[in-house]
Write a structure and sequence with these properties.
Layout (H helix, E strand, L loop, with lengths): L26 H9 L2 H8 L12 H13 L9 H4 L2 H4 L5 H12 L2 H23 L14 E7 L2 E2 L8 E2 L5 E3 L2 E6 L6 E7 L10 H12 L13 E5 L6 H10 L2 E5 L4 H8 L7 E4 L5 E9 L14 E7 L16 E7 L6 H9 L3 H14 L7 H20 L1
Parallel strand pairs: 1-7, 7-8
Antiparallel strand pairs: 1-5, 2-4, 3-4, 5-6, 8-12, 9-10, 10-11, 11-12
Helix pairs in contact: 2-3, 2-7, 3-13, 6-13, 7-13, 8-9, 12-13
InterPro entries: Tnp_DDE_dom, Transpos_IS1380
Protein name: Putative transposase
Organism: Gordonia malaquae NBRC 108250
């Protein structure tokens, strides 16, 4: 790696008590930027936006806010905390310089987001190659797929911002949809993509689910045009639309999608014989008292849905004090999901689907890394900011 793509000083640790610096623990973070190749990739990808005689590399200007939010910041202004330590973080651009670059990038948002996404994808390929057997895509197969979780979240705008609107919960702001690459129960996760949307965007908008899935799949190294069953797309019932499931079927990926229930399906579930039910599992794959799973595929009309789609339902006695929903039946809390996985016990498939709750942890992490506060006015500028948040989430996972 040549000097033009080394963003941060290479600090050497000594025990002599001299030359003490604050934020020394973030050396792991800055070295991750360098060793992963992210510095070189960002520098190349954003090279077209570098002006003649510019002092600061646009790649570093974008990397610095990502480093700042991982180091404890939560907004663009917190870049000041790393500007104070050039011995640790190198020369950090001034606030006006950062703002000018983001405005310039926002003038061509599609090209900018594509460039940053390409840099992240190339870096991810290098990181996963270095990880070897620990890489998320190591030995993936139809029975051991790489999981991509999709979910949307509400982000409040505390001032007037472009495309901020009222949302279905009575708040005001944005409704981004994100995809996360799951690392399994023993790890964290990486950001596939974050699609910024107005606050009034629908939870079940199939076009947004498709756009988010395409962008996330583009982040996975060495995937063919049709990824196949070694990729599992997992989301809640907002994704259970005909258009989205038809898209997943055409891509030949595995899926596990929440499936909405109504009174008619509740009546069918009530009539299932006792032998149709099998105990559900706890997170440790032990039978769970008061919870069962059954298959609905052969007893409900699935015409119009993709071929090979199965529907599995879980019933559970609510804990004391819990309120039943209108779709629950006969004192049971009911949830269902659709999948095209043909093998495995029902309890294992239901446990796999239930583990999508880890996506909520990724969203909380994203909000800790800047997604909670979209700091700029224009929609395009804030979309660039979400790309910086995605960088921060990835760096946090790669350290």
């Amino acid at each position: 790696m040549n000097n033009s793509t080394v963003f941060y000083p290479h600090i050497h640790a000594t025990g002599d008590g001299e030359n003490l610096v604050s934020h020394a623990g973030t050396v792991l973070l800055t070295r991750t930027v360098e060793v992963s190749g992210l510095a070189a990739e960002l520098s190349t990808a954003l090279g077209p936006w570098r002006t003649p005689l510019a002092r600061h590399d646009p790649g570093k200007i974008i990397a610095d806010p990502a480093v700042a939010v991982v180091a404890g910041g939560d907004c663009l202004a917190d870049i000041a905390t790393i500007r104070e330590r050039p011995d640790t973080f190198g020369h950090v651009a001034s606030d006006p310089t950062v703002s000018r670059l983001i405005s310039t990038l926002a003038a061509s948002p599609a090209q900018t987001l594509s460039a940053i996404a390409a840099a992240r994808a190339a870096t991810r390929a290098r990181v996963w190659a270095l990880a070897g057997p620990a890489a998320p895509n190591h030995d993936i197969s139809a029975t051991n797929p790489l999981v991509i979780d999709l979910d949307a979240t509400l982000v409040t705008a505390h001032s007037d911002k472009q495309s901020a609107t009222g949302n279905y919960k009575g708040g005001y702001g944005f409704h981004p949809m994100a995809a996360f690459i799951d690392h399994g129960p023993g790890g964290t996760g990486e950001a596939g993509t974050i699609l910024l949307r107005p606050g009034n965007a629908g939870s079940n908008t199939a076009a947004d689910h498709i756009t988010t899935t395409r962008a996330a799949l583009a982040q996975i190294p060495d995937l063919p045009a049709r990824p196949g069953r070694k990729i599992l797309i997992r989301t809640d019932s907002a994704g259970a639309t005909h258009d989205f499931l038809d898209y997943l079927h055409k891509q030949r990926v595995s899926y596990s999608i929440g499936f909405g229930l109504d009174a008619r399906l509740g009546d069918i579930i009530d009539r299932l014989p006792k032998q149709a039910w099998t105990p559900a599992y706890t997170s440790d794959r032990e039978p769970r008292d008061g919870a069962d799973v059954a298959e609905l595929t052969g007893v409900i009309d699935l015409s119009g849905w993709p071929a090979g789609m199965r529907v599995i339902v879980r019933r559970e006695k609510p804990h004391p004090g819990a309120q039943l929903r209108i779709t629950d039946s006969s004192g049971w809390r009911l949830t269902a999901f659709a999948t095209n996985t043909t093998r495995g016990q029902l309890a294992d498939l239901e446990l796999r689907h239930r583990r999508r709750a880890r996506c909520e942890d990724r969203i909380r992490q994203g909000k800790d890394c800047g997604l909670l506060n979209l700091p700029l006015f224009s929609f395009a500028q804030n979309h660039v900011w979400t790309a910086i948040v995605a960088l921060a989430i990835d760096l946090n996972a790669w350290m």
